[in-house]
Amino acid sequence: MDVSRPIIEKPRFIAVEKFVEARTNSIAQLLKAIDNDALVSGEVTKGPRTAAQRLPRHMRRRAMAYDVRRFPRTMRGFAESHLISKHAKKCPSRFARRRTANTRNKFGRSTSKKGIWLSTHVWHAKRFRMIQKWGFKIADRSFQRGFRAVLRDSNRNCVIRDRSYYTCLTIMSTDAYSKMSAFSQKTCRGQSSRGEEEECHQLYVPDQYPYGYIGPARFQKLTGVQSDKVHVWIHPASKPQFLKALIEHYKLEKEEKSEFDQFKNSEMTVTIDSEHISRFHLSGPKCLSKLRDSIRLVENESFGSEHNRFLSVANSVFSSNRDGEVLYLLIEDPRTTWDRKTGLKHKVVSDDSTAEDWRGNNKPKSEFWIREFRENAVGKRMSDADFHKQNGSRIGGVVSTEAKVPIVLIIRNGGLKALDGVDIIISEPFAKDLWVSLQRRGVRASGLRDEYAAHLESKTLYFPLDDVESEAGKESEAAMKKELTEKYSAKPHNRRCKHWSALSVKYPFEYKWDELSNDWSNETSNKEGAFACRDLKMLKGIQSTLKGSSEFGKEVKEAAGMLVPVKLQFFGRGRPKKFGMICIPTDEDLISIRLNRNREIIQLPPATCSSVYIEEFEPMELEDVEESKNRMQGFVSLDAAASEKPINLKWLFEETTRLDDKTTKRKHVNRKKKESKKRRKLEFEKRQEVVEEEEMQRQKANYRFSANREIIGRVVAGEQSVLAGQGTAIGYICANALPLIASNYHKTKTVVMVRNATSKYYHPAYVTIVTRAVQI
Amino acid sequence: MSIRMSTTPSKRFDEKTNDMRRRPPVKPSGDPNHIYITRKTNVESQTKTAEELLNNAFDEIFIHGMGASVNKALVFAMEVERKFGGSVKSDIQTSTVQCTDDIVSLLDLDQSETRHRSVSAVHVHLYRASS
């Protein structure tokens, strides 16, 4: 017999009148809803929603909403207005939706607000993560491969990147090149100019050197008929600052009625992005040979010598070409090489790759830069449909079309491991064709993340992410700080890294160069702020001084606010990260590194305030237990015994009736809720107080002396290097601190300590000066 | 072989005001059975690679060394030969490689020179002996 069920008294009878009387209200409501004249009989909803609902159930048929003929003839006139097909068009087929011609029109996302699309956007968007950056939609990383594959190919094979987002400014004026030289700082360039080569310049706001850095730019100067033209390629991030400086310096005014942005004064015209050209960067030892296999050269007498030169150097690009050398080619439509399984057979040319001063004897064929010449080819371009129709109808495929496309090759041979190669400039409608053509020859495409990694592997700075003082660099730093702070504050409080209280990191998400350089400069205040040293001769001098050849000169000791770019090579453990700190090693550190380079050197929390080595660390005393408990607040212990709680026997065998009683239960729960809310609030307030106190302490602390070891600089980029097999980083250090580290030798190399912003471990690293100009 | 005159009469230049950039030397071949020994090559691990090449893929391999690594290249070749114990024979050839340097003056940017250096090189041809 079931005892637990309570006995319910069943009523013997119902007094109908009483029963109905008690429920009059609800019955009236119910009747109002269903027994309504407005309703079709048998329907409960308020009014019919579709035409079919007007019909009684037995007359309804399938698919009535889509086909008017399913209705009885008398109702068709009325039903027509309710048909779904009239309102919703059928979705076009997947095939139609994916047609390239439609994608751009249909989605129409290529606006400056949402990011401008490059000519290879559709190709990339299927294979890459696209991100919005600098007003463009740029491919970030491949879904198919990691960056190691890209790095491997840039060392052995060939890698391509679309750099069309660089802005091309056309400056037209008599003697335009020398007019632009006012912006370029000569001492920072480190590349000689000879004839019609492309050069990388460092742009500064005129008369503000060493402050007022704008960014690197590539100048393409032209000789002969077009000598009044200079093409300046700059990074889109530095475009606003450069334009502002340019307009101010030459008093330019904006031209209103023109299709491009144009600025003018009486003798000078500056147009922006008016050329409609794309720029690809190919890197790797096989870049020219892959390119040779994927293009058809046009038999043209005037371009003959350029073509011969291209064919002769294609196999030995780095040994026979100067940095910045330019080759002008005339090629057939790139689509004509798409379907070929084997490489094209070009004519055999005699090997004159070592020819001295080839460019001196052959005048450049710079017709590419005449717009009519390019537009002529663009106008003759066959549409895709036409091309494929013709291509299918011929046995060998289309070999030649009317459009003869001029392209420019710029040799990049700056001695950078993963970045050397060739830049291709081609007019926009053909850019995607050439891209696909190169893809079919096995050239690996890569994105922005790979470019950043390649710069780090080559141990050079990457503009603008690694830059410190230009507006573009500051902008990217601010964006980075915002992103990291958001990410940090989104974490629960007990999962956050205690940057200040545990690690003594004053600025975990920013650099604050001005403050750091101020701490280091001897003068009381340096109002101008920090600037990076880009004078190559001075950097060379500093490098040789670090090697111990001479004493530091006056210009280093007294340079207030000067930062020196350095590369760091880790020789023990350590995987450096952005925002790491470069510190001065103490004498004990140097001794311990000599004994064992992997010995751990630890930053201790400020309470204990002196660093010790792990081996010497004594077992904790009993007095410390309280404090350590405090520190462990909020951490979840993995020890099983710690989470055990004594339970009262009364709770365990509570009366069942009490639990069944819903009101008591609810009250109990509510009380608990209230208590925990109160507790949380108290805890939050307490935590807030601690945070505020910490913040106060942090604000008071001197940046330079904020940790156990004096901070001399910060790491702007770092990673475990794939090529070196060790940690590699790039950073800036204060020039005033150089004399202090100059004598710290380990195996004839200067040593500093580097600590990540999220770590307490100091790692030793060799420091060398970056004596190479930043390039784009 | 024709003697090439260097473009700069004197090979000396001031290292403080000039920057020298060495272009990489021309490789005789990019095929996988050509092994280039540099100062950074680890002979032991490279020996294993060479053995695998000879055992599996190729009947002959070429070992190239230049300048400071001539000695190392020869040591490496002898090591491979010793490991095969007579089943592999070697021919040795020496040559001179022309290297190009770009010298960029940091003071006067319109001046730039290219300089040629001659570097000694050694090429070892290792092949399976026909038995």
Give a nutshell description of this structure:
The complex is a heterodimer of chains A (776) and B (131). Chain A has 5 domains: 16-87, no CATH class; 167-272, Aminomethyltransferase beta-barrel domains (Alpha-Beta Plaits); 277-442, no CATH class; 471-616 and 707-769, Aminomethyltransferase beta-barrel domains (Elongation Factor Tu (Ef-tu), domain 3); 646-700. In chain A, 32% of the residues lie in helices and 18% in strands.
Counting helices, strands and paired strands, the structural category of chain A is alpha+beta
Instruction: Enter the CATH topology name of the largest domain in chain A.
Output: Elongation Factor Tu (Ef-tu), domain 3
CATH topology of the domain at 27-96 and 120-128 in chain B: Translation Initiation Factor IF3
- Give the termini separation of chain B: 37 Å
Q: From the structure provided, what is the oligomeric state, counting identical versus distinct chains?
A: heterodimer
DSSP strand (E) fraction of chain B? 35-45%
Most residues in contact: chain pair: A-B, 27 and 25 residues
Major beta sheet, strand line-up of chain B: 1-4-5-3-2
* Sequence of strands across the biggest β-sheet of chain A: 5-6-7-4-10-9-8
In the CATH hierarchy, what is the class of the largest domain in chain A?
A: Mainly Beta
Overall mean pLDDT of chain B stands at 83
Q: Whole-Å distance between the termini of chain A?
A: 89 Å
Fraction of residues in β-strands of chain A? 15-25%
Q: If helices are DSSP runs of H or I spanning 4 or more residues, what is the number of helices of chain A?
A: 28
Give the helix tally of chain B. 2
DSSP summary, beta strand count of chain A: 24
Uncertain regions spanning at least 5 consecutive residues of chain B: 1-6
CATH homology-level superfamily of the domain at 27-96 and 120-128 in chain B: Alba-like domain
Domain Pop1 N-terminal (chain A): 102-172
Keywords (chain A): Nucleus, tRNA processing
InterPro entries (chain A): Pop1 (IPR039182), POP1_C (IPR055079), Pop1_N (IPR009723), POPLD_dom (IPR012590)
Domain POP1 C-terminal (chain A): 562-770
